[in-house]
Amino acid sequence: MLVVSNSSPLIALARLSYLDLLQALYGEIVIPQAVYQEVVQAGNGREGSAAVQAAPWISTQTVRDTIAVDILREQLDRGESEAIVLALETQAQLLLIDEARGRRIAQSRGLTHIGTVGIIVLAKRRNLIPSGTPILDQLIKIGFRMDTALYQKAQTLMQEPT
Q1: Which residue in 20, 21, 59, 127 is deepest, having the highest Cβ count within 10 Å?
Q2: Residue 15 and residue 63: Cα distance in Å, rounded?
Q3: Can you give the C-alpha Rg of the chain in angstroms?
Q4: H or E segment at 11?
Q5: CA angle 47, 30, 44 (to 5 degrees)
Q6: 40 Cβ partners below 8 Å, 6+ apart?
Q7: CA 73, 76, 79: angle at the middle one, nearest 5?
């Protein structure tokens, strides 16, 4: 399965020491140059940066269609734009992305996507983690934006008490 990721799921999961869930769920992850620059280079010294850089199952690929990236840049940041274009270019089966606008644009282009919360739900359903609620709580604690409805929906999907 070819999976492309934007920076936010990588950063969030790496900061909580759950980056390995991505490998367990998807095997390999491909990221565009802009995501690598944001997470590893600009994020050097920040929580999660070293974990992403050290993960041999995360590879970087250059986006070919820079015009498509520039068009998306009118609405999204460079990492999100490159992740969407790379997912289209590689015909990825899945795009990891959290930002609402990016998700809407990805969906409008026919891309299947999942965010950090969905990854946690999937990990719980596949018994890769004993409980997802503590991870959701940790996400909120580090500043991850999640409204009450999403939190409760995730708990319901994981069959955990609300």
Answers
A1: 21
A2: 26
A3: 15
A4: helix 7-15
A5: 25
A6: 49, 52, 53
A7: 85
Higher local confidence (pLDDT), 127 or 44: 127
What digits encode the pLDDT tens for the residues 7-49? 999 999 999 999 999 999 999 999 999 999 999 998 888 888 9
List alpha helices for 27-157, DSSP H: 33-36, 49-54, 66-72, 78-90, 100-108, 116-125, 133-141, 148-157
Domain at 3-116, CATH homologous superfamily: 5'-nuclease (3.40.50.1010)
* 38-42, 100-104, 107-111, 129-133: range with lowest mean pLDDT: 38-42
Alpha-carbon distances of 126 from 17, 62, 78, 123, 134, rounded to whole Å: 18, 32, 33, 5, 17
CA 139 vs CA 14, 40, 42: distances in Å = 11, 20, 21
Distance of CA 79 to the CA centre of its chain: 11
> Which H/E stretch holds residue 14?
helix 7-15
The model carries a pTM of 0.95
**Confidence category of residue 97, pLDDT binned at 50, 70, 90:** very high
Query: 59-83 b/e with 16+ CB inside 10 Å = b?
Result: eebebeeeebbeebeeebbbbbbbb
What's the angle, vertex CA 122, arms to CA 120 and CA 18, rounded to 5?
A: 35
